[in-house]
Design a protein that fits this description.
mainly alpha, 5 helices
Amino acid sequence: MTRARDPWPPLAIAFLVLAMAGLVATFVFNVWAVVQMRDFIGDLVSSGPAVSSITVDLLVVAIAACVVIVVEGRRLGMKRWWLYIVLSGITAIAFTFPLFLAMRERRLAAQRATDEAAPTG
């Protein structure tokens, strides 16, 4: 008898926790900016070289994350992989990328369970 695979492997749970942390943290700061009626984009690029540096740094990471989402989503046949990219513009890549990674781990675990259950012959 084979043991059923856990649909939420530990790595998927770790990524899910990161996604929730990213959602909550960015939501708080975004709401704070709206309440203070700040120019969100202007503040990112005009508050000095350190802020501009981290903005460019995070932008490059976000673009790389989107590339990973496209490549891995297609390779694994994940449904609606593009939605993670769209949602990152509405929420934050700090939420959607770890969420994508969690769903990717679930997909890989399901594929491993299917492969193990397949008869060899």
